Amino acid sequence: MDNIDRALVALLRDNARTPVLTLAKKLGVARATVQNRITKLEEQGVILGYTIRLRSDAPEQGVRAITSIAISGHHAAEVKRALRGHPNVVAIHTTNGRWDLMAELRADTLEGFDRVLNSIRSIPHIENTETSILLSTFKM
Predict the structure, then answer these.
(1) CA-CA distance, 19 to 85, in Å (whole number)?
(2) How far is 87 from 67, CA to CA, in rounded Å?
């Protein structure tokens, strides 16, 4: 990735629905250049997909939690791949210390969250988990 790719990714992070022509103007390059770079970044797996951000108080979020995950052996890449494909996993973070990963989870109800947590605990090489349900969020 060069500086134009990094700037393009930053603009897409801010708003993935920005029209290609607007991106081209902001980057000072041709529209075709932006389209080709986006395609290349998608093909290389740099851009994995596009998403939306919801307000923290949006009612659709239901139950939110942070799950700390311990992984057996050297299987972190396999576990991250499995979590990345899970529809209720919002974000995955690597960390140091006792836990190998932190996963942000969302479900519509507590019963649904129980199913989500059980499905995550059944992923091969997940050795242990500890979950904290998020009750309130305060923006700084």
Answers:
(1) 27
(2) 15
Please write the tens of the pLDDT for every residue from 33-64. Answer: 999 999 999 999 888 888 776 665 655 558 99
Distance in angstroms (rounded) separating the CA atoms of residues 117 and 129: 9
Rg of the chain in Å (alpha carbons): 18
* Helix extents (H) in the chain: 3-14, 20-27, 31-43, 76-84, 110-121
Cβ atoms of 8 and 23 within 8 Å: the answer is: yes
Dist CA 76 CA 13 (whole Å): 26
Question: pTM above 0.85?
Answer: no
Angle at 55 between CA 50 and CA 60, to 5 degrees: 85
Buried b (16+ CB within 10 A) or exposed e, 66-105: ebbbebeeebeeebbebbeeeebbeebeeeeeebbbebeb
